[in-house]
Design goal:
GO terms for molecular function: metal ion binding; transferase activity. Residues 13-265 form the Transketolase N-terminal domain. Belongs to the transketolase family. Its cofactor is thiamine diphosphate. The chain is α/β, with parallel strands linked by helices and 278 residues long. It has one domain: 3-Layer(aba) Sandwich (Rossmann fold), CATH 3.40.50. The chain is built from ten helices and seven strands. The strands form two sheets. It has a five-stranded parallel sheet, with helices on both faces. A two-stranded antiparallel ribbon has the order 4-5. Strand 2, helix 6 and strand 3 (169-175) form a beta-alpha-beta unit. The two termini are 16 Å apart. The model has no long low-confidence stretch (mean pLDDT 97).
């Protein structure tokens, strides 16, 4: 897919995120919006997948380690054709299959149930190791939050991944610099993130995670790296695409009201229209 089409698709994904959260009246917009460009590139360009066969044995795998940003994952899955977009209106509704955290048993396209922070990377490492042991060539991608990597299990899994030379594993850190209690540097600083992953034996790439050229270059770099896993440290803007949500910690876990929803959708509509004129 061309860059312009990816940008247009990302706007649609952001519209769906905001719409789903408005319908749910709860959820996590900030980290869903910050990672929307990464989700879009993964599902429309990078990953070898088949929406008509979500359990295809040789598909690439994705684990959303920061599972509370499920609205972002659900929105890109719907955009890619795994399930109808109108189902996003059922987000977090009692008994519906799109719950607040990803559920692999009930949601097409979800490869791992997640939400307990710090644990998703361990599942991804296990998938990557299983692929190596089975002689498969599928790749495994996992998205972590920068606040999430304050969890110790993240570094156990990283140590193991590097020691087993899992070059089929790509760890992406959504570095939007905000977690529920404030700036990550003030809560419990994980900086320098890149140097930590390097110390654990990773190939490391630093990028602007809201720039498709840099995202594409990073994933190409990851495929070229042999004998070690790759960590992509993606500097992003929390709440990206909705002006009043951008870089505001208050939008970590809050849904827009009717007026805020209308404002957000108008902004995203204009962003989409400007792309169509390019």
């Amino acid at each position: 897919m061309e860059k312009l089409e990816l940008m247009k698709t990302a706007v649609e994904v952001r519209k769906s995120i905001v719409t789903a959260l408005h319908s749910a009246k709860s959820g996590h917009p900030g980290g869903s919006l910050s990672a929307a460009d990464i989700y879009t590139y993964l599902y429309f360009e990078e990953m070898n997948i088949d929406p008509k066969n979500p359990k295809w044995e040789d598909r690439d795998r994705f684990v959303l380690s920061k599972g509370h940003t499920a609205p972002g994952l659900y929105s890109v899955l719907a955009e890619r054709g795994y399930f109808p977009k109108e189902d996003l209106l059922g987000l977090r509704h009692t008994g519906f299959y799109l719950q607040g955290h990803p559920d692999m048993k009930h949601t097409p396209g979800v490869d791992m149930s997640s939400g307990s922070l710090g644990q998703g990377i361990s599942a991804a490492v296990g998938m990557a190791l299983a692929g190596k042991m089975a002689g498969k060539d599928y790749r495994v991608y996992t998205l972590l939050g920068d606040g999430e990597i304050q969890e110790g299990q993240v570094w156990e899994a990283s140590m193991f991944a590097a020691s087993r030379n899992l070059d089929n594993l790509v760890v992406i850190v959504d570095n939007n610099n905000l977690q529920i209690d404030g700036e990550i540097s003030e809560v419990c600083s994980p900086y320098p993130i890149d140097e930590k992953f390097k110390a654990f034996g990773f190939n490391v790439v630093n990028i602007n995670g809201n720039d498709f050229d840099e995202i594409a270059s990073a994933f190409a770099n990851a495929k070229a790296a042999k004998g070690c896993p790759t960590a992509i440290i993606a500097k992003t803007v929390k709440g990206k695409g909705v002006s009043f949500m951008e870089n505001q910690v208050s939008w970590h876990g809050a849904a827009p009201n009717d007026e805020q929803y209308a404002t957000a959708m108008e902004e995203l509509k204009k962003a989409g229209e400007s792309l169509c004129q390019m």
